[in-house]
Design goal:
This protein has 376 residues and is of the alpha+beta class. The chain is built from 8 helices and 20 strands. The strands form 5 sheets. Strands 12, 13, 14, 15, 16, 17, 18 and 19 form an 8-stranded antiparallel sheet that branches. A 4-stranded antiparallel sheet has the order 5-4-3-6, with no helix packed on it. A 3-stranded antiparallel sheet has the order 2-11-10, with no helix packed on it. The relative contact order is 0.16.
Length: 376
Amino acid sequence: MFVENSRLPIECALTIEGSRSLPASMYRDDDIFELEKTSLFFRTWQYACHISQLSSPGSYVTVELFDQQLVLIRNTDGEVNCFYNVCLHRGHPLVEGVGCKARLVCPYHAWVYDLDGNLASARRADSGDAIDRSGVALTSVRVERVLDFYFVNLDPDALPLSEVAGGLEDSLNEVVPDLSDYQLNPALDYVDKPFECNWKVLIDNQLECYHCDVAHPGFAKLMDIENTRNTMQDDLVFQHIPAVSDLQDPPFPYQRDGDVGDGMFWTLFPNTILARLPGAPSLSISRLQPISATRTTRVIQVLSHPGGNTEGSEDRLKWLRDGVIEEDRGLCEAVQKGVTQRGFTQGYYAIDAQRNQLCEEPVRYFHQRYLDALSA
């Protein structure tokens, strides 16, 4: 349970067992945000990249987590390493973006590292007080793979991803058994313009469809919201929303034979979301990237089945961007304004024991996991 911490507001020392939700201050406080960096984001598994981005020896992808810069790179044995993306000479970044290199060469003084992070050459530093290269290596970061996705964790003592989200791989295999055939579709990738709200406002919104029939009329027309099913285990929340059985006039091209019917959503604590929507077979994976206590962006990658309905995918993305996502933007940014009001100090959970699947139990579950992580 949550324990006393002098950096947290006193009202946060609570357990999430009743109807009251997180205090409003936790959605706007700069000190809370700084604590989240070190106690939450630097200690949890963060999505890094898809396996196809590291397809051959020397392939690399850079990742930023707040002010920490990382590089994932495949070595000559086929293993994927992750290092802090910083030369040990003066601290200059080694690489940018994505690419492929036989060695990591610092662009400042040309120090060279092999694909396992070992210092291979220190230019003009091999005589006199020579550097003992055998003891110099880039600092490693933990990396784990779930199916075709790589995740990183800055905490060397963190539990393995397979333990904290053991159901993720099995669930994905069940829902998308041919996931290995899916390919990244860069034409559908995008970075949201920043949301003017705390990242937890977005997660809270993601974890409940209590608002869907009120605020998303187009989505509610497509999905059988009343029969939403939620499963919560360890660091994973899985949501299954069936398709409307007699769907008429879909908002984007929809083929009843071959296209996906139901909506499936996986939220990996604290800030990774995978989604499978009705329409052309695809799977998106996104990571919410907090910018400040009141600002958040999101990077989304989309995988498509090579035999899928391309036109349908593009039209569905337009429907999502211009419709559902913008509706959520308005909702979440309005909530952020609300949590600054003196008349709002702490919210409530809508929990209905008779209809426990269409309620905010996943939000309460996430909040308790969040408080447990901050208290650790």
